[in-house]
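Re: the request from the purification team.
They wanted to know what the chain is likely to look like in 3D before they choose a buffer screen. I agreed to run a prediction and write the result into the notebook, where they can find it.
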Amino acid sequence: MTRQITILGAGCTGPLLGAMLAQRGADVDVYERRADPRLGLRESGRSINLALAARGLNALMHAGLRDSVDPWLVPMRGRLLHAPDGSRTLLPYGQRPHELIWSVPRAELNELLLAAAEARGVRIHFGHRCVAADFAAGVLEFEHAPGATRRVAISDARPVFGADGAGSVLRHAMVDAGLTEAREEFLDHAYKELSIPAGPNGQYRMEREALHIWPRGRHMLIALPNSDGTFTATLFLARDGEAPSFATLTDPRAVIEFFTQNFPDALALMPNLLEEFFAHPAGLMGTVHVTRWNVGGRALLVGDAAHAIVPFHGQGMNCAFEDVVLLDELLWIGSDWATAFADFDRVRRVDAAAIARMAIENYAEMRDRVRDPGFQLQKELALELERRHPTRFIPRYSMVSFHAEIPYSEAERRGAVQTQILGEALAGLDSIAAVDYGHVAKRIEAALTPLVV
């Protein structure tokens, strides 16, 4: 198998893939349309802070980069709900010390991965916009200056990986050539990046080790901590339609009134709200469905290019990084490119579809259901059943976020069974103390096989 490889996209997934393949001896070129962000040219106002969980950490460990990211990580032990009256409730993610997720700034992680890839010999070509992918002629074409182009071969001897995100140029080229079909399902909600600055001497102005959520039914605000005492906040709101929506928040008075009514405690911590609100674009969110991710052994889509998902389970990057681990394992077991790519497409598809569905479900949970006492009671019982049946009953969120060994599709399947068991156990009850645990134990033993965790 030849080891000359082209990767499109130098976000987080492309450099990680490049670093892994270069470590195996591959000769890797990465092409990126943006300028090098390490030269002070970072894009701003378009990101949602990343939540690194077990699957992402496993990938960084697999690549030998786990320790490098530590300085940027801030632990989040649960969701801290901010009610309209100012009261706060912490809903823990898990019940063991290691059951947490980590906030990490996208820009710092990206730059760390770029440096790691280059340190392993990967060549990263910034300012190279892919303008054509001709599979019949076997050529990629890049524009790197006005009127200046570069051509790179595509073949079974030099495959190309599309790690160029939800708007993937490679995916669009595959669709245009009739090599696959793609469908993008956009939510009617959009997001806008905002911020909460640090207090004096870099102090955090809210609880540090939590993902802060202001759930308001039809919309919500979240804030994730950064290592410098700041929080990256994100407003999720309908794009169009009647107020409140981004279409109706068109002047400073309307924005201040909206935040005063919905997020007064956050507003008090956001001195740059108006400047950021009108400077930052409203970003789209959606799910990408692609019928085929590979073109024989010549091309393969990975990460968001293949299966972009909405951000509400915090799994987009984790899922993409897990793609990279699976690819790394498949590519170096002796298969040719065509076999490895086809195996990846077949093996990964069911899990990518499962996390896409769960991510959409989690949006309704985060912005609305978390406020429901019945929902909180279910979460309380789920943790109690996990304590009593640790190898059989693991809450779905825990399976997704803390157990990289459990496939997304299995987490989805078992989660549906567990939801039914919880509903039956709590029917007509307002406390888990009244649950018939003997009956529930029989249901769990009959419906859920033990897991190796």
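For the purification team: The longest strand covers residues 182-196.
Please add any questions underneath this entry.
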